[in-house]
């Protein structure tokens, strides 16, 4: 069975060829083993390159994602800043789409146009060629016919005899005066008149409380005849100013309706 001493003694592996260090053993290995080791090294290097490439791609994707997120934030910010402009632009395009793209012939004859010009010229002389005075007379006549209409223009708390001193009233006078002047200069061009009158009608939606079906429009037509005393002249002059008054009111109401619909679209886009 052998002695106990021989079993207890430690066995030295130093001299055993099967337990040489790896470097030495690899040198003595077979060509097949060397090829296996080289293939393993190549595979490991390839895997390292693949991992490095994947890591680089992940970093690139992260950078792209961060940059994309930053760009999206900038885009959203730009959209927010330009939101009102875009809505206003859309609303403006909608207004243009609603406007009738036709030539407006009008109902004035040549003799009626001449009669209107003659009366206007006489009234301008009496006012010292002050168009704003005539515009003021028109608005005052409207409020004289129905004092309740002042509330539509936010002037209900202003006494009638102090309206001329009110700044808000003066603003309405300036807008009305410029429209009146334009109409009188373009009696021969109903299409041009319609644009100016529709713009004035649109202002009623924005700056007044006038409703589309209000009796205000009938009173405007009546005042349009009376503020130049056309009702106190011949029937021909009366008819001429009545035709022009009807045309002005009709075009103003068209502009009112266009602006009203445009405002509804704008509210829906907000």
UniProtKB/TrEMBL annotation:
Domain Globin: 107-257
Keyword 4Fe-4S part of the UniProt annotation: no
Keywords from the UniProt entry: Heme, Iron, Metal-binding, Oxygen transport, Transport
A Pfam family it matches: Globin
Region (Disordered): 1-31, 54-74
UniProt-listed InterPro entries: Globin (IPR000971), Globin-like_OT (IPR050532), Globin-like_sf (IPR009050), Globin/Proto (IPR012292), Mb-like_M (IPR044399)
Single Gene Ontology MF annotation: metal ion binding
Family stated for the protein in its record: Belongs to the globin family.
Name recorded for this polypeptide: Globin domain-containing protein
């Amino acid at each position: 069975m052998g002695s106990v001493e021989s079993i207890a003694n430690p066995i030295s592996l130093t001299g055993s060829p099967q337990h040489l260090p790896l470097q030495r053993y690899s040198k003595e290995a077979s060509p097949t083993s060397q090829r296996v080791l080289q293939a393993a090294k190549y595979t490991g290097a390839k895997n390292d390159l693949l991992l490095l490439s994947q890591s680089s791609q992940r970093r690139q994707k992260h950078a792209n994602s961060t940059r994309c997120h930053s760009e999206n934030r900038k885009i959203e910010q730009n959209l927010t800043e330009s939101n009102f402009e875009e809505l206003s632009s859309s609303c403006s395009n909608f207004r243009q789409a609603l406007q009738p793209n036709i030539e407006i012939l009008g109902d004035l004859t040549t003799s009626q146009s001449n009669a209107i010009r003659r009366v206007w010229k006489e009234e301008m002389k009496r006012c010292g060629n002050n168009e704003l005075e005539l515009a003021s007379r028109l608005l005052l006549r409207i409020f004289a016919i129905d004092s309740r209409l002042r509330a539509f223009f936010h002037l209900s708390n202003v006494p009638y005899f102090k309206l001329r001193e009110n700044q808000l009233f003066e603003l309405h006078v300036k807008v009305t005066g410029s429209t009146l002047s334009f109409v009188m200069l373009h009696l021969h061009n109903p299409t041009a008149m319609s644009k100016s009158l529709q713009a004035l009608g649109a202002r009623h939606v924005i700056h007044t409380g006038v409703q589309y079906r209000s009796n205000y429009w009938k009173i405007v037509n009546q005042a349009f005849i009376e503020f130049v005393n056309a009702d106190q002249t011949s029937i021909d002059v009366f008819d001429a100013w009545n035709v022009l008054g009807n045309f002005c009111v009709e075009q103003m109401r068209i502009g009112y309706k266009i602006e009203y619909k445009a405002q509804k679209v704008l509210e829906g886009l907000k």
